[in-house]
């Protein structure tokens, strides 16, 4: 059985979208994208309800770059990725790859992705679909933080004061000759002597 000639071609050779996406991702991973272009891409994402991957890819590919430098950076990055310990690879990179189709006809019959990289609609996310993105924690207001610290410290000092008073009462009961009221008197005398109270 002769293999179909198209099966030996890479995705980038069969579909130009893959080539554009791969090059734009390579430029991002190697740091070959200028901050201005990144800002434009972020602005495009912020003004769209779905991920505008074609606009982002176009912005990145329109940014001039030295091809030989990009190629060398890409090779270095690929080598680092290949030589890296699998346990150190981030989960997004180390995610299992979908099984390859057994033959070309299965690849042709596979349902094409209409718009890869599109965020799901809010209804899809609410119904158990993929999350829209990282969940950002809201910062607590300074007043709430202050009150929380006050409550924690106040509780700690109340417990410490209660233990101290309990210890003094036990000392008075166990050792009747101990004058527990002597210490506050001495402390007040010391303050008067230091600060000149009358």
Number of strands: 0
Helix content: 55-70%
Q: How many angstroms separate the termini?
A: 111 Å
Q: Averaging pLDDT over every residue, what do you get?
A: 75
Main sheet record = none
Q: Tell me, briefly, the overall form.
A: rod-shaped
Task: Describe this structure as you would to a colleague.
Mean pLDDT is 75; it is low at 92-97, 110-114 and 123-127. The protein has helices at 11-14, 16-29, 35-46, 53-62, 67-83, 104-109, 122-126, 142-174, 182-195. The radius of gyration is 34 Å and the shape is rod-shaped. It is an all-alpha fold and 198 residues long. Helix 2 packs across helix 4 and helix 3 (35-46) runs antiparallel to helix 4. The termini are far apart.
Outline of the structure:
This protein is mostly helical. The protein contains nine helices and no strands.
SSE blueprint and pairings:
Blueprint: H1 11-14, H2 16-29, H3 35-46, H4 53-62, H5 67-83, H6 104-109, H7 122-126, H8 142-174, H9 182-195
Helix pairs in contact: 2-4, 3-4
């Amino acid at each position: 059985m002769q293999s179909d000639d198209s099966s030996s071609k890479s995705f980038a050779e069969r579909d130009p979208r893959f080539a554009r996406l791969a090059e734009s991702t390579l430029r991002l991973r190697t740091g070959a994208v200028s901050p201005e272009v990144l800002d434009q891409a972020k602005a495009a994402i912020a003004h769209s309800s779905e991920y505008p991957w074609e606009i982002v890819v176009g912005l990145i590919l329109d940014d001039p770059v030295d091809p030989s430098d990009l190629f060398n950076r890409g090779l270095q990055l690929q080598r680092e990725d290949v030589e890296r310990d699998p346990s150190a690879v981030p989960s997004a990179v180390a995610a299992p790859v979908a099984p390859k189709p057994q033959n070309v006809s299965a690849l042709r019959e596979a349902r094409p992705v209409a718009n890869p990289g599109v965020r799901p609609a809010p209804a899809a996310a609410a119904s158990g679909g993929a999350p829209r993105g990282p969940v950002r924690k809201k910062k607590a207001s300074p007043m709430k933080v202050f009150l929380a610290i006050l409550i924690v410290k106040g509780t700690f000092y109340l417990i410490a004061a209660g233990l101290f008073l309990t210890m003094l009462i036990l000392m008075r009961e166990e050792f009747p000759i101990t004058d527990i009221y002597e210490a506050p008197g001495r402390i007040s005398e010391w303050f008067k002597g230091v600060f000149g109270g009358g």
